[in-house]
Structure formats: structure tokens, C-alpha cells
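Thread: "does anyone have the structure for this chain?"

Original post by V.I.:
We have the sequence but no experimental structure in hand. Need at least a predicted one for the grant figures.
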Amino acid sequence: MNAPAYIQLGPLQLALAAALIVINLGISVWLRLGLARNLLVASARMVVQLLLVGFILDAIFALRTPWPVLGIGLVMAALAGWTAVRRTRRRFRGIFWDSLLSILGASFVVTGIALVGVIHVRPWFLPQYAIPLLGMVLGNLLTGVSLALDRFMETVVREAGAVEADLALGATRWEAAHPLVADALRTGLIPTINAMMVMGLVSLPGMMTGQMLAGAAPASAVRYQIVIMFVIAATTALGTLAVCALAFRALFNARHQLCLERLRTVERKRL
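Reply from O.Q.:
Generated one for you, C-alpha cells below.
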């Protein structure tokens, strides 16, 4: 039996789908959530951004050079690093660079291994593989980095007395901070672990669903999704470890002292 033909979506289908936002608007107005304006702005931004990305990717996919792909990857990683820090309430000097370095290093290394060593993409920079894979990795990684950073800094402030007592009794900065780093890492990895636990039973992931909608055999789509989830898990682990290590270095000096004065609190804007 032949796979069903791919169904193209036109302006009418998009308009009908957009009309579903009325459900969100109705709930917001009914319960006085104050989210109506934000919902409209977010919807408009999403549509414009995705349409622009579609036009750009059409042009990029036609190229056979790695530089545009690397450029797009750098821009995506930079935005992910900035977004991860924007979600934190406490910050220190250089936190944006630490976030960017962690996200850029982890995502590029593991995505590169997946493209070359696992999927065997030839050439490795084929944009229809490299860009979607990197996008999925960054989307999950920024969540892990943001959660780990926020948890580490909040815990450092809350447990400052206990940490300084350990340091005063002769503990090294790593011995005093190790429980806090471990707790932050666990927090950053929880969303990925939860997603893996229920995948296939509760949820069908976006990549797998997209491939099946495009006509790919379910077995093939499943294999791709398994690869993607292991790549995401490895990248999130490396990225959260790196950002926690850099935050640890920023808040504990070489004389094994806790430097809370390096932290500042910023007011996060409501969505």
C-alpha cells in the first residue's frame, strides 16, 4: 500500500487554524487573566517569524556551502544563550557569555557528532539536516541551562550561611558547592528525562509526527526520533554541566570564598 500523498496547506487552512486562538482569548477574558494582548502579539510574532524563516530556509537549502549554515547556527545559539539568561532572576557579570559558551559548545559538538558519526550526512552541512537538528537541540538545551542556572543561584543565596560555615571549617569551594551544583544539574535535566519517560505513550514528538505527515514510514520516523532524543539528552547534560561550572567559578573565588556581592537581582518582565 502506497503512503498517502503529502497534503499542502494553503492560506485558508492557516486562517482556520489561527482562528483557534479565540479559545485562548475567550478563557483569558472570562477569567480576567490579562493575557489577551500578549496572546495576540505572540501569535502575530510567531506567524511573521516562521514565514520569514521559511523564506530564508528556502534560499539556504539551495546552497552548497557551509558558511550560511554555520552563520545561521551561530545566530540561533546566540539567541538561545540570551533567552536562557533572560529567564533568570539573579545574574552575575559575564553570565550572558557563560550561557552562550555553554550552549554553543555543547550544541555544536554533539550535533556535529550526530550529523557525521550517527546519521552519516554527506556533506555534513546539508541544511535540511543540520538546521532542523540544531534547532531541536537548542530549544531543549536553553530550557535546561535556564533551569540549572536559576536553581544554582537561588540555592546559593538561600544556603549561603551553610556554605560559608563549610568553608570556614576548612572545606574547599568545590566541597561546599558540590551539593548545590548537583541539585542544579538535576533540575536542568528533569524536563528531558520526563519527556523521554513518556515518549511514545503520552506524546508523539514533533519531528516524528512531521516525518509521518510528510509520508515517511512510521518505523523510519521512530528511528530518527530515537536518535534525536539521545542527542538532546547528551547536549543538555553537557550544556547544563558547563554553565553550572562557569557559574560556580564566578561565585566562588580561588581563595575558597563565596562572593555573593557579584550577584545582582533583576526584575523579570511578565509575559
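V.I.: this helps a lot. The chain has two domains: 10-62, 65-265.
O.Q.: and The first helix runs from residue 11 to 18.
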